[in-house]
Amino acid sequence: NLKALFDFVRTSLTPSVSDSWKGPVLLVDDLSVLLSLGATPVAVLDFIHYCRVTVCSQLKGNIVVLVHSNEDSEDEENELVVNSLCHHSDLILWVEGLATGFCKDVHGQIKIIRRVSLQLTAEPDHVQIYQYKIQDKNVTFFARGLSAAVL
User: For the chain, how many structural domains are there in total?
Assistant: First the structure.
């Protein structure tokens, strides 16, 4: 039962009369942890649904959720949560390693999916793919095949 966690989120994000900030953002660092603690996928999805109603609809804010996924994973419960979140998200940032394996100058790629289809238009979703390199204090993004090592 994740009701106590939801109650904590709701009371923490509900502004008091003296608060001047608008549009709260709820960051959930790793939703997969709730599954590993014994919560069912339905309970986790209900929790996110109630958070979405409270934060997005009532408080006019946003929710950012991190979920770990692996295409080769046999964790069906986690994949159910990931797929459901993808179907209900406006923006998906899908970060993965390179399909070709390790590279010294490119550490992975990020796929940015803007879900236009949620607005019930005939337009397809907008997908952008960038590669990245993680450095000491920043991350460098570049178009696929355009890293400094290639050029």
Answer: 2
